[in-house]
Amino acid sequence: MTLRIPSPAPPLSWGLSSSSSPPLLLLLLLLSQLPLGWSLPQTFRVTPQNVEVVAGSDVTLHCEVENQQGNAQWTKSGFALGFNRSIPGFPRYTVLGDEAASIHNLHITNVEMSDDGEFQCQVTPFGNARAIRHAANLTVLLPPTSVEIVGHTPDALITVKAGDSLTLECLIRDSKPVSRVTWYRGQEPLRLGKHKMVKVEHNLLFLPLSPSLSQIPQDDKKETSPTDSHLSSLRSKITFTPTHSDNGLDYSCHALHPALTHSSEQLTARVTLDVQYPPGAPEITGYTEGETVSAETRKTLTCRSRGGNPLPEVFWFKNGVQIDKNFIKHRKYAVNEYEFEVQASDNLAKYECQVSNVMTSEPKIAEIQLSVHFPPSEVAINGPTEAKVGDIISISCIAENSNPPSDVTLVISGQTPPGATSRTYKVEHGGWNTVTNLTSYEVRSIGSDLTVNCYALNQALGSTKIITQVVRVLPRSRSECVRVCVIFFSFLVLFFVFVYFFFLTLFCPCFKRKKNSFSRPRLTHSLSLPFSPTGPPDSPVIMGYEPGTLLKKGTSKRFSCISTGGNPLATLTWFKGAQELPSVTRHEAGNAIADLDIVVSESDNNAEYRCEATNSATEEPLSNSTSLSVTFPPAAVKVSSDPREVTANTETTLVCESASSNPKANVTWWRDGFEVGPGRLERESRAFGGFTTTYSVKVNVTAEDNGAVFTCQADNQFGTTTHDAITLSVLYPPTWVKKPEKEISVKEGSSIEVNVSAQGNPDAVTYIWRRGEEVVKADSFLNISSVTRDQTGTYTVEATNSQGTAAANLTLNIKYGAPISSISGGKNLSVGDTVTLVCQVDANPDPDINWVREGYDFGRTEHKKHVSQNVVEMTLRNVTVEDTGVFICSAKNEIGEAATASTAVIVKHKPIIDKSAKYQKAAAEAGKEARLACRASGAPFVHFTWYTRENTPIEPAIYSRFDDRYSVETSQLVDGLVTYESVLLIKNVTNKDYGFFECLAHNTLGSSRTAIHLDITSRPDTPLDLKVLNFTHNSVELAWTPSFDGGLPQKYRVRYHVTGTARYQYTDVYPENVTTFIVTTLRLGTTYSFSVLAYNTKGDSEYTEQDVQATTSSTAPPTDTPPTQAPSARISGLIIIIVTLVGAALLVLNVALVACFIKRRARKRLTASSDKGSSKSTTIEMYAPSSYTGTVTGETLSSISEKSRESYTHEDSADEYEAEAARVTATSTYLIEQLEPPPQYASRPPPHILPPPPSHNDLNMDDAYDDVRRNQYNAALDRATAAGTGGYGTLGRRTTTPDHYNIPATDPHYPLPTRYNTYQPPTHAPLTAHTHSLTQNNGSLRRNAPSKLHFPKDYIRNGSMNIPVSSTSSPAGGVAGQYPPQSPTRTHPPPQPPMLSTFAPDAVQSPAGGGVPLEHRGHLV
Question: Which of 124, 214, 497, 915 is the 20 to 30 Å CA partner of 711?
Fold first, then answer.
């Protein structure tokens, strides 16, 4: 056995001094005595420790060995990982550290759930050193995947009724180890108040409960995940009874897990409670119990109900009948204001305010009863309306329904009669009737009737109603007069007898003597009467108050002090305590009376009111007193809080002290319609015999109580309550109003803007944004422009005031594209090797990474993705030659385009020659140059050797043997991988060169041969592998593989046709050398068949044997039509000049025409001025009024008379009328428009003729001369027409056949010629003797003796103009003859001499020879 000391150092390196040599020698001596093979023991310098790590992160298990002699390795759950520090088969495992220093730290990247377990660091034995091992547990932490409140969506609103039990169940899914949970009520956790034992899978847990919810049980149960046995879920239930204070609060459960400790992510689920609870009791304002209101005044009653969810409905009822349901909901209360005019029926009416919501089974009610003063509704006098002198009559006056009762007074003839009595009694609505009766009243003769006045005075309202009734006094009868006279004279006789005896007694001596003898003693007695002595009055008596009666503050009261007797009568004085009060003493019927009116106040409580009576006979005043008992409410309440500055989550005391009141006030605190309490009550005696009440309550305040209004109410049943409120100012640290989002994802280069806000008290809140320890910005607004990927991270914003700080985290996730940072491949592999291709991408978000190689079977590859590092590995095991090729790594995320990178896998193999037709043939004409290509793939590098037909190698050394016509080009790598190509060039080809040449491809792994045939040029071979690459609605893209080109440049032609038809279409491919082509101008949704051929100068190949088919899309894509531009609205300058000149010329022309017209009008007026001396009044007098019921104006008559007398001697009169007719289109202006049509035309449709044009307005209606001419002219035309003669129309034109818009005269819709007085006379009948002769057929009139105007009998009837109709047909067949007359025809009177009249004799006699009577002839109007 030998001694083995590892790595001993030379003795000289020990550095021992000479003094240490003896101990060293001793040590060597001892070591030499040890048995052979002994060595120092192996120990752990650093032992592995248990580690918890979050899945997806990296971890290192430390292991260091002291005096290591054996080999070190790690085991996982008993499985040895091997001595190779790279740990094959476990790519995520690596042993790190200096192996020479015995450091063997196991590093695991991207920890997965499979890594959970026990790891051992082991060192094998060596020699005498024993094996050592030490275990450490690696616990993989998986945070919960989700948190939810079962049965509710996130942030759901849960509606629950106050008092109902509510169970919330929180489910925290799939974590390792099982999560814990904390429940929150609002912002406050349910703190530890009491403990409740809950058994959870045989584990006893202590669950904390909130002090405010100390009775809430919490039940937590663990469940195993159905998807992974290593994962656990937790269900936590709380059951509680919500109250109104929970309304609007959030209840949330927060997942607690070690994996979330260092993460900014919080897993929380929350719901918001919508707690329905009943409203507070209604409060009525606007009326105080006991208050009196007057009728016919406006009153507003307000009912307010605080609290309640939902806010209540507020309705008003009067005596049980709903009267108003218009209420308004505010944020915390509902109110209904009912405004009305007070009526007598409102007295004692009960007004109820009812509030209710879904939580009230019965409405909550507050009620008042109105007290209304109203005057009497009616005052009436009952009694006779007449009476005789001496009658005894009864009269009564009644004032009905008054409150208070009216004072009714009867006054008869100005005097108040004695003996009237009054009584009152109640009626409905709390009113009173007052009746005053005068049962016996003698009617005396006062020379007039009795006037009875009844006065009804309502003193409370100060209103008086008066009603008067007159009683007629009747004279006495004769017998009554005699009886009265007898009685009168009887009384007169008795009077004289009395007077006689009086004087006899006074002056007769006997009677005097007798009288003196008997009356002396009495005389002495009678003389003493005028000298009665003074005396004091009786003690005063106070009326109007019964001691002990409670009086209410504010009421009016009258006290009366009465003192009887005394000589003189007493003087009364009122006192309140020692203070003299003003009063007036009046004397009535031996009594002294003094009234005192007061308005009761709180100072009157227990106050003594004293009345003193004095006169000259009293030495001391006589007095009487009474003490009042007064109830009064507290005048005010005083509120305060202790401490004055309240901090959140502390206790404060609210103190309310009421002012003095009687009786004692009940003081309460209220918030949102709910009473706050209980509290402490204290009472003390105060002024005026009242009491003060102090009530204090303690309240635990939170931040949510900031701004809360607490109202103190003092009520002593007086009828009114006294209120005051205090608004809490709670100091609390900031709470978030607008919190930043947990995560913001933006593209790189974008800008972000984040605005946060927090509220606190005090409200001076400062903000700081941090990223780690770096302060980014000191503001609530974070703005980062053009973010970059290195700004990714967690930002913390802090809101701070004097009370604390609130923090929130924002994770900024910068998204950027997916560039491939690295890619690895495998080259120079041998068949059967294993290679791993690694593609690493730097991208956010994580991209989709794929390996792509066209035509490659990935079925036998192994893929592994490291999500945390964006690495994809692909392993190829047992590689073969087929695995050689380019693999493309493609990475793409939502940002940008896909990124690609390629790597090659090259498997070493002997050359494989491409024996396709393209490389097996060559062609050239004699004397030309031939090119023979040999292509082979192989690895490593492929070498080529060419041989002639004689098997002679063609090498540079022997080129001369072939006359230097043969040469071989240097081999080229054509695909960048393993495909090489060698080219044999033959110059000046001869016939001997035609035939086969051999190509040998070889490398270190082997060789391959092929024969290539050289021939003369020919047509090309048929192309190969025709296929469809793509198609659209009108095109198809084709691709093919070229074949042997015959030694000449080849081109291609595509043939296609609609499948199922034989009609082919052809197109040559351009450019000529491409092998892909797009066939266009195809039809929508049509199937086509395609084939292709190759051709060169020697001919065409065959078409491909199998056609390929493709169907175009059936829908065309939308086209973007560019917006059309409207042509510019540019007007050339020339056009503008032309338009301007034309406008100026028209303006000058118009001015000239106007000037001409004015000049012509002036000339006409000058001509007519000679006739204007005619008096119209003279003409009017000549016309007798007609019996016709129409209207004839003086102007009309004057015009007619003047026209009748007009002499037309001017030769140009026709011209003037022609000019006049040219201006006038409506001939007559004398008929009244809108008259009834004649009966024969009443049923016919209106004529198709337009109303007269407005040109008739150009006539000068004030021109008398023109009027005369037109009237005379039209009258003559009318007479000519009535006679059936021809003539001209009123327009001065000959009108044979009227042309009204081309309507034939036989048409039933032909317009009547009388429409707007457009008259069409016949043209051939001669004028009668009664008409003016027409000298010319041009409308001009010649002077003739004037005759009466003549109208046919149907021309004017009942104010309407009819068509002049003849009983016989017109000679010309005119229009007038088309409609037979419908009115009766009467006999004409004998011809009359000419006369001035507005009536015309018939121009045409009827068959009966009768004329038209005057009453049937109309006025010309």
Answer: 214
Q: Which residues contact 1088 (CB under 8 A, 6 or more apart)?
A: 1036, 1056, 1057, 1058, 1059, 1079, 1082, 1109, 1110, 1111, 1112
Say how far apart CA 8 and CA 1 lie, in whole Å: 18
Report which of 822, 825, 864, 865 is spatially closest to residue 842, judged by C-alpha positions. Answer: 822
What span, in angstroms and rounded, lies between the C-alpha atoms of 353 and 333? 14
Name the nearest CA neighbour of 945 among 909, 1014, 997: 997
Q: Do residues 1269 and 1217 make contact, with C-beta atoms less than 8 angstroms apart? A: yes
The whole-angstrom separation of Cα 709 and Cα 707 is 6
Q: What is the DSSP letter of 22?
A: H
Strand order in the sheet with 591-599: 541-543, 556-564, 591-599, 585-588
Assigned token pair, 114: 């499979």
Q: What H or E segment, with its residue span, contains residue 738?
A: strand 730-738
- Altogether, the residues listed in the chain come to a count of 1421
Amino acid at 907: V
Q: What are phi and psi of 534, to 5 degrees?
A: -75, 155
Closest CA to 1021 of 1055, 995, 1052, 989: 1052
Cα separation, 735 vs 758, whole angstroms:
5
Residue 792: which residues within 8 A CB-CB, separation 6 or more? 812, 813, 814, 844
Q: What's the CA gap between 62 and 82, in Å, rounded? A: 17
DSSP 1305-1321: TTSTTPPPTTGGG----
Query: Is 1091 in contact with 1050 (CB distance < 8 Å)?
Result: no
SS3 591: strand
Query: Distance between CA atoms of 793 and 774, rounded to whole angstroms?
Result: 12
Maximum pairwise Cα distance, the chain? 225
Cis peptide before 845, with omega less than 30 degrees from 0? yes
Cα 105 from Cα 47, distance rounded (Å): 10
Provide the 10 A C-beta neighbour count for residue 1261.
Answer: 11
Q: CB-based contacts of 483: which residues, under 8 Å, 6+ apart?
A: none
- Encoded amino acid at 1113, one letter: S
Residue 652 CA to chain centroid, in angstroms?
A: 42
Q: Which residues contact 100 (CB under 8 A, 6 or more apart)?
A: none
Q: Which residue has the tokens 């400790």?
A: 261
Q: In 772-856, where do the E strands start and end?
A: 774-777, 781-784, 793-801, 804-815, 820-824, 826-829, 835-841, 848-852
- Number of Cα atoms under 13 Å in the Cβ half of residue 1320: 19
Residue with tokens 């039990």: 165
Q: How many CB atoms lie within 10 A of CB 1239?
A: 14
Q: What is the mean pLDDT of each run of 10 residues along the chain (1421 residues)?
A: 36 37 49 54 91 89 92 90 89 91 93 90 89 91 90 92 91 88 87 36 31 49 67 89 89 88 80 92 89 90 92 93 89 91 90 92 91 91 88 91 89 83 86 91 82 85 83 73 72 79 65 41 38 76 85 88 88 91 86 90 90 90 91 91 87 92 90 87 87 92 88 86 89 91 89 91 92 89 88 92 92 88 87 92 87 88 82 91 90 87 92 89 91 92 90 83 85 89 92 91 93 92 93 94 91 94 92 91 94 94 92 82 46 76 88 88 71 42 39 38 39 41 38 43 43 42 49 53 45 40 51 43 41 40 43 41 38 38 41 42 41 41 30
- Global confidence as pTM: 0.39
CA–CA distance, 917 with 865 (Å, rounded to integer): 44
CA atoms within 13 A of residue 569's CA, in its CB half-sphere: 14
* Structure-token match 């001892």, residue found: 30
